[in-house]
Automatic annotation (TrEMBL):
Organism the protein comes from: Vitis vinifera (Grape)
Pfam families cross-referenced by the UniProt entry: DUF659
InterPro entries membership: DUF659, RNaseH-like_sf, Znf_BED
Coiled-coil intervals, chain numbering: none
Keyword annotations from UniProtKB, A to Z: Metal-binding, Zinc, Zinc-finger
Organism classification: Eukaryota, Viridiplantae, Streptophyta, Embryophyta, Tracheophyta
GO terms, molecular function: DNA binding; zinc ion binding
Location of the BED-type domain: 3-59
PANTHER family, per the entry: BED-TYPE DOMAIN-CONTAINING PROTEIN (PTHR32166:SF123), OSJNBA0013A04.12 PROTEIN (PTHR32166)
Region ranges (Disordered): 1-21, 63-82
Name of protein: BED-type domain-containing protein
Compositionally biased region (Basic and acidic residues): 1-13
Amino acid sequence: MASKHDIGWEHAKPVGGSRRTTKCKYCGKVIHGSIIRLKQHIAHISEQVEGCPHVSVEVSHSVRQHMSNTSKEKTQSKKKKQRILNSLNRENFYEIDEGDSDDEIEEVVMADFERRQMKQAMKESRPILKKVDKSIRRVEQVQASRVPRDTKLEIHIWKRKCKSLRSMIYHSSVDTTNIPKTTNYIFSLMDKVVEEVGEENVIQVTTDNEASFKAVGILLMEKRKHLFWSPCAADCIDLMFEDFGSMKQIEETLDQAKMITGLFIIA
């Protein structure tokens, strides 16, 4: 149904309280149908509707121009909508029955949204998964290379294998964000790793120099007699430099150097 603000109502009035039937203000002709038919009557642009014999040329031309502009706007609007629809992926559309409740519709939409989010997360995590998978395969290679050390020949082979596979290998990681870093907890993690790798394959364990890690190292050596724990040398040196930097004379020198070079030492 046409809007009450349509330009056609400037040239007609409704009949019987219905806007589906109009009466021309110029010739009094009653026209059944939408307001478009009335405007066609005024503008003389349709063979289906007789043109108004009493309307002025200026009014007829004005209505004709208005209808032409409106048609162009509708065409442009349809093209714009079609471009938007064409740019959308079909999987973003959902077939909804009239009987579907709002909760059911929301559940379908959210399920699809979560599925697409999961696909995106999996895509972004592929490089990390490849690195982890590569490390796992290297661990398996090392495990497969272990041989019984009951002959000199086998010991010689084992040494050669160690040299060829002695690069760093990622074993596992644990999310300890909300877990207190107590000695017992850290010990349980490290002891589990030693158990998984094989106690006979672990010679040395290196950790940071925090008190809890030192206590863990002592517990490991007490439980596994042949295992040796040592603090990280790099961490030791780092702590030494930190102590040096806290000395007054050296601290002043470092501050002056930072002003010149922008050097910032992270302890």
